[in-house]
Every structure is written in C-alpha cells, then in structure tokens.
Amino acid sequence: xxxxxxxxxxxxxxxxxxxxxxxxxxxxxxxPFAEQAQQALVEIxxxxxxxxxxxxxxxxxxxxxxxxxxxxxxSWALLTYVNSPAARAAVAxxxxxxxxxxxxxxxxxxxxxxxxxxxxxxxxxxxRALAGMNHPRLPVAxxxxxxxxxxxxLAHLLRLLEDRQIPGxxxxxxxRFAKVAPDLRRPMxxxxxxxxxxxxxxxxPLVRIYLLVEEERFAEAAACGAEAWQPLAEALGAQPEPGDxxxxxxWALAQVDRERLYRALRLRLAKAADEAxxxxxxxxxxxxxxxxAWVLPALVELFGRKAExxxxxxxxxxxxxxxxxxxxxxx
Length: 331
Fold this sequence. Notes:
The chain is mostly helical. The chain has helices spanning about 10-15, 20-30, 35-45, 55-70, 70-80, 90-100, 105-115, 120-130, 140-150, 150-160, 170-175, 180-195, 205-215, 220, 230-235, 245-255, 260-280, 280-305, 305-315, 320-330.
C-alpha cells in the first residue's frame, strides 16, 4: 500500500498540489487514509492561501467532491473560505450555487449565514440563491436574512418582500429600521406596508413617519416634527402639477416649516445629481435637467436664491454633477 497506494505523505503532497482527483480516488478506495484525504479536501476549500499549488479551479473541484461526501463539512469549509486571505468573490459565488442546488437543511443554513458576508457581492449572491431554494423552511430563513444582510443584499430582500408575504418579517424590519442606511428606509417602508403594517400600528416614531408618507398622509407626516422632512423630501417626484403627490408634499412642508421645504428642494436636486454620478448616461443627465427645471425656480421664488440658482443651472448644463452636489451642500 505504501508503494502504490495512498499514504500519509502522499495525501499531504496531493493536498499541497491541489490534486483533487487523487484525493477523491483515495477516499473512494477506502482504507486507513480515506479520512485524511477527505480532511485534505476540507482544507483545500477552507484556506487555499496556505497551499502553494491550489488554484481556484481546484477549490471548486474540491468543494464539488466534498458536497457528495459530507454537506456539513462542505458548508463549514465554504463559510471558512469567504473569510480566508485567498477568498475570491467569483469562486465563492460558484460554491454558493452548488451548495444551494442541494436544497437541504445544511445548505439552507449555510447559504443563510452567507447572506451577511462582506466579501464583494457574495452577500447579495447568497440572498438571491437563498430566495431561489425550494425548502419548507425558506420563509423562516428569509426572515432571518433580514437581520444578517448588508446594504445591497438587504435592498434585494426588500424588493422580494414587496411581492412575497413572510410571517414575522414586519416585526424584524421595524426592529432594524432606524439602524439601516437612510437610502434603504423608504424601500423598507414600502416593504413594511406590503407586509401589512400601517402607520397606526407602528410603535417607532420614525417608522410611523415613513409609513404616513407611504400612505400619502403628507400633512400628518409633516406635523410629526423635524425627522419628517427627509422622508417627505425622498418622496418628491417630478415637476409638481396641481394636486399631484409632489405638489401635496411641498404644500405640507410649507405649512409646517419653510426651512424644511428649503432642505427638501435641495435634497431632491442633490439626489438626481447623485444618481447621474453613480449611473452616468443620457437618461440620468436628463433627469437632473428635468429636476433642476422646477427646483431652481422654486428656490428663487420662495427663497430668493437667484445667484445660487444661476450657478447651479450653469453646472447642470455643463454636466458637472459633483459640482452641483457641492453647491447644494454649501447653501
């Protein structure tokens, strides 16, 4: 056996070289070194940075072999891999897809835990894979993912919740609401409303304000205090027409505090500029122009900001959207 079959030294060498097919043969052949060979597969996946001859392809191959042997070991190795120095998002995505396709308890739990991964877009990919799994406990897993998911993954979950009812999701969302990034609060409020929560049911004052805006009870929202201006500003749309959503929001802000109205108008234009910076193109640039066409006259008419409006108009026309943001911040 020592001459022609596997032994401890060969197993170690095959591990260092990423010789997955040899390790798999040693496992299939049984014998005293099969367990060592399986552990070698685990180590190839878990931290390839310490193995000089292991490639990304070897990691994927080792994970596929391990999945057929022990899903719990494969899951542990994947969870360790994403935190290793050699971890690559493209490889992690492949491993997640392979694991999720098994649709077992072990797979569901591991993919759920990966929803909180901070490696590239792995957390978002895990959430997408999780949502596509066919498992009786999927609703519970998605509800748990709401607590784990980072920004992009959470944004994807919130879009799912607009179409999918998940028992208990509203309670989780309300608990996390004040802690999420401000740009996620409006999508979270939409998800809360789709999950059946109303402003009257909300215990948290901030959640209540956002739900009042979603319910288009703008005057009530504006009367809630200083925190209300941003939710109302975020809900502003295109050029206001008599009686439309934007006109009613502006009216509600003006009745309570003109300073909040001023801040809301600046935020509306700043958001359009930010979108044009993040997604450059003719459509977003046109969006800045369309927004400026009604915001700038309002800043002049209501607040006398003639000089600032002229400078902003020049920067918008030149497509210098970062300058637009800077000017708005300084006003």
